[in-house]
Amino acid sequence: MLRSFLIYLSKAAWAQNLVTGWGFAWRTASRFIAGTKLDDAMRVVRELNAKGINATLDHLGEHTNTPEEAQQATDDIFATLDALGADSSARANVSIKLTQIGLGLDEGLCAQNLERILARAKKNNTFVRVDIEDTPYTDKTINLYYLMREKGYTNVGTAVQSYLYRAEADTHRLVQDKTPIRLVKGAYKEPPEKAFPKKADVDANYDLLTKIMIDASLANQTKLSADCRFPPIPAIASQDEKRIAFARQYADKVGLPKDGLEFQMLYGIRRDLQEQLVKEGYPVRVYVPFGTHWYPYFMRRLAERPANIWFFISNFFKG
Question: Does pTM top 0.85 for this prediction?
Fold first, then answer.
């Protein structure tokens, strides 16, 4: 119930106006968000790279309300891509949400913006990950991904959420086309007819999808590029040590080289685990969000783990 309430708050304008007015809220959010400016994010990329950790940059934003806002979001993504183009040593790529660039307004507008983004990314030798959002947008997101592939763009991948019943079918379809997939559990509120209600079932499906992705990476011999910008098929995006252990054990069992997959984690969470995996020779990529539109992302992080809520409350009492 608490998780559902926090996810509701992540979309409530009144709650956003209230919380973003609290100074302590940003102090708490900054644990999970690199900063409000691109310079902040690039600084974090350099710090992570120095530790042997790769990054993916996300200029936060979603559900734009006008074509002008979608254009501004697209321009912000251009700036991120250009920053990576200007620093060829930066081991990072870019993640985006399609509602950020107009999917909720007009699918045609979103397609135009996405194609322009991929063209800019290609110019800057950068990969773009299209995130999966809640289920009203799942089919549209996958369809737009395939439209871009038909147009010749190979510097793009997407994500799959293991809490959805449809995830296995989606994964089989995507790996047939050698799609780089970020595998997540899912952070939105979905009805029981679309998503597994029990955590154990979500975890079991996560492990099943991990096997499918690892098998596909082995069969197609995909691996992390030398510049660490272009990922292999499997991106195991989880802080859950049991899911990570399963992926490691299965990859070892079938003989997948360590650079045939990567582990992804959120900025500010389980830094010890990130560094341990790097020491053991596994590619690790940290999701680095930044920007002024941090509220929805922050609320979903609170919804994921009770420990994050206590961290927030402790800052409240510190004033």
Answer: yes
